[in-house]
Amino acid sequence: MIAKKRKPKKCRICRQSFMPVRDMQPTCLAVACQQEFALAHLEKMKAKEAKAERQRIQQDKVARRPIKDCEAKTQDAVNALRRAQDQAAGYGCITCGRHDADEWHAGHFIPRGVSNGARYEYTNIWLQCRSCNFFGGGGRATAYETNLVGRVGQAEVDRLKAIPHKRTWTREELAEIEARAKAELKALTKVNQ
Asked: What span, in angstroms and rounded, lies between the C-alpha atoms of 124 and 110?
């Protein structure tokens, strides 16, 4: 068998040209270069292990977080996205049609307390002024539904009404919904700037 002829390389530390003794040799034969390279490699490995440890701790925190906290964080992310989407589209309050509210909310057609299954459905959440969302009572539900049919159609409204009310969300599902909503909001914000 013919031995492979080696080519000169540059030392990763002193940048001098040298003839390697073995394949994949990163430094010249100077002890100082080899020590410096070994220490740098050791620091990289420690940093990698520390990063892995921080990620593991973060995952443990998420796994121990109460499901109610996960639901609240996910709802905040989804609501922020829906408000931004509706404002970017030029919509006003879905109930009264106002465009100049002091405070905007993300109003649910099927309330969160009634149906946990429709809680994060984007077609269930629309821009709504504070007065309609908090103080509208039962009288505004009819206006909401009428305007919702105009935006998404009767078939979608019927689908929302048919979603099972009881739904148990897992932490993984909630984390995925939250991450997707945050990413979409970031992209939407970047486009509108």
From this structure: 7
d(CA 91, CA 66): 35
Q: Is the dihedral of CA 19, 22, 27, 28 positive or negative?
A: negative
- The closest of 112, 123, 108, 126 to 165, measured between CA atoms, is 112
- What's 128-173 look like in SS3? EEHHHHHHCCCHHHHHHHHHHHHHHCHHHHHHHHHCCCCCCCCHHH
d(CA 99, CA 86): 11
Model pTM above 0.85? no
Could you tell me the pLDDT band of residue 126, with boundaries at 50, 70 and 90?
very high
pLDDT at position 136 is 65
pLDDT tens digit sequence for 135-175: 765 557 888 999 999 999 999 999 999 999 899 999 889 99
- In the chain, where does DSSP find H-type helix? 31-64, 67-89, 130-135, 139-152, 154-162, 171-192
